Amino acid sequence: MALVTVKPTRIDTAIANEIAHNTNSGLERTTQILTWGADEHVLIALAAAGWLYTRLRHPQQRPVADHVLMVSLATAILPHVLKSVFDQTRPDRLTVTGHWRGVPFSGRSRDAFPSGHAVHMGALASAAGLLPPARRRAVRALAVVLSLTRVVVLAHWASDVVAGFTLGVAVERLFRPFTLAKRRPKASRVRS
Known about the structure:
About 65% of the residues lie in helices and about 0% in strands. The protein is an all-alpha fold. The protein has a two-stranded parallel sheet with strand order 1-2. α2 (about 25-35) packs across α7. The chain is globular and about 50 Å long. Mean pLDDT is about 85; it is low at about 100-105 and about 185-190.
């Protein structure tokens, strides 16, 4: 039993009920496939591959690759720790109508808060700030869409996703001074 029980808000319940009443198996299948793009296993594998690639081909990008890998590992661990502190029933356990229309069951029933997928996507959206503007916007849009898939499949309440996304942004920003400190030009180090 966790230390804190989190209850969904009225808005969370209204959104989940609307999704349950209007979903279908095709939408749910598509969303389930998309949600894999925010899965911790996929993201850690991609971050590790990118880290290795920079070691072999682009040594000047090592600090960024180190940063992405460290943030990916931290955002993989943190939601599991928080889910041991917080209990919240997933919306898919509270809907009957949704299951008739194709909503699957997700994860452990009381592990709704926070959304781990959204934590990863919040960190990714924040790290996108290191990219040029066009790529930054594309990555941030993708991060938001992948986070919202967790609401559509009724794996999380909307507030779980917002909290997770915000937490991911905070984690990425907290890591920057440590992992990217070497990246700053010498002139800015002297002034800091």
